[in-house]
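Listing S7. Sequence submitted for prediction.
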Amino acid sequence: MVSMDDKLELAVGAKTAKALSGALELHTVGDLVHYYPRRYAERGELTDIAGLELGEHATVMARVKSVHERRMRQRRGTILEVVLTDGSRTLECKFFNFRQFQFRVPVGSSALFAGKVSIYRNKLQLTNPDYHPVDEESDNAADAIDDFVGLIPVYPAAAKVQSWQVAKCVRQTLGMLDPVEDPLPERLRTRHDYIGYDEAIRSIHLAKDWAGVQAARNRLKWGEALAVQLALAQLRHAAVDRPAPVCERRADGIGAEFDQRLPFTLTEGQREVGESIAVDLAKEHPMNRLLQGEVGSGKTIVALRAMLQVVDAGRQAALLAPTEVLAAQHARSLAAMLDDLARAGELGGAEHATRIALLTGSLTAAQRKQAMLDVVSGAAGIVVGTHALIQDRVEFADLGLVVVDEQHRFGVEQRDALRTRAGENVSPHVLVMTATPIPRTVAMTVYGDLETSSLRELPAGRSPISTAVVPVAERPAWLDRAWQRVREEAAAGHQAYVVCPRIGEQQSADEDVPGDVSEALGSDSDGRRPPLAVLDVHEELAAGPLSGLRLAVLHGRLPTDEKDAVMRAFAAGELDVVVATTVVEVGVDVPNATAMVIMDADRFGVSQLHQLRGRVGRGSAPGVCLLVTEMPAGTATRDRLDAVASTLDGFELARVDLEMRREGDILGASQSGRQSALKLLSLLRDEELIAEARAEAQALIAYAPDLGEFPGLGRMVANLVNDSRAEYLEKV
């Protein structure tokens, strides 16, 4: 018999344990038992091919539609072409030099096929996939697939360890596993009518019907939700007495004077959120607020008014930006909005003026020395910078507020390092801004007691943006029309961005691609060519469809002064088109830019596309965003692009993004990946369950903060919150 803490080799043998450890990072019996099926295949039910993701290692239940052998055109050998179907769509499999083995799935029969999803001639395919027949009796009595009755668990797999091999190991291990103690108190479990923990972890793998699967999933999801909420409740309980600098409003300070000068009327949302922030800043308890809003909804003006309230209280505010380009632009825009209110100590400075200090890694020694002096002396009431702000040598005179722009671009560790600059045992107020909206349950789960404010209303004068997918594989002429549209915008006196996934350095070939499959695969292991590069596209456009226009390149590896010069020239109307990487994703504000063409748009995420699109339509003229892709219709990747094109609602796209991608490890710095702390809990679909768990956790921690009376719950939290996650949570 084995227990959860035993090494995996005790259950499956040394050779198999080594394979599971190397391919799937499973090291103990507990790791394997908690490696839950991704889904279940039901005999006779086929997998939806349309849901496959390019580049993923997929396991599908499919029926063989046709089998055809042919000789390769460019080298010796043969290819076996097998066409699979789910009843509506097809998926091609290519077996190279297949005579080395026997293909045992006749036409009309079903099997599990596993391999990396690639693309060739605009069609999805699996190259040399492993497969396991399910319509014939196996010669191996211990075959895990044939041992399953009704439902066949399908596990996340890898090239060297297939789903059915994992299933066999799990079944073998569960047969040796000692009964597992339930961490939930009996009263708590029965009140919510959940099955026991031991029954749940066995049923999640071995259930014979969907009712058994659902009962197991409900119990295990509840455990995940409760563990997360208990950890967050403990943090909230410990942080109650942490003081913050009190920053009350003044009726005669720089904030009041700035409001009197505003040349426009604040939106209702800006006024409401601003009032909430003002009240928070005047309290001793640290403000922890997430401000989310659409691109162009006016988050910056809200943040500036908050910073001025802090300056009026004799303290400093720090604005943290993800890139030097954005930091420099923030400093310029804040200075422009404040005008003489930002020129304290200078000729022509206003009576209540302060000073803005820009601190980035590329400053000259003299510039850095002056900026550091302004910060440490308190002469600079507003400090703007990148990660350079969180270096140990940067000291603030009296830091009262930290504003983090585009939180998804900064790690928690970086934000925390800046927060501690307020002094020992004192925490500054924190305002986190994002134009990538976060669903309520995500904020509730990840950020604990962070208050969430939203700006949904766009300021007057903002123009609509139309978005269209340009499917060059199906409609090659549409790309020509895209460049024609850019020329039309330039002829009308407007400007455009062309965005590419990379700069232009040579990429090494993928070593995983066998040499004899070059006929069917491109340079990438998923069958695609390398991503388009800024330098190459700029050269082609300048000599081809955009010849005669004023073009320039912009990417993160340019010297800071060159990047700044390009953006200044673009903002001044001296350039027609900027060919750039995602360095223009956030904060770049050129109202005259009305068009954006995103090359290889399928290489970007939903949130990133929404951010990029927000760079156009910022003036009075309408904007257009064209998403260029070679991905065929019906793939999950193409569905993401269609979703972006269908709506400008960032809140809706945030839900789409979370539904379409892995949720990642919400309790650690990793934003994606297999080793997620939440294996079953969905932050979107399990909102009610999360809310219930939050209420239970608050009551439990109020009664027993250290969970000393509930050792099972304490172990559950400890197992979830390992050392790195505990450190992370302390910084949330």
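Caption to Listing S7: primary sequence and predicted structure tokens for the chain studied. The longest helix spans residues 210-238. DSSP finds 24 helices and 21 strands in the chain.
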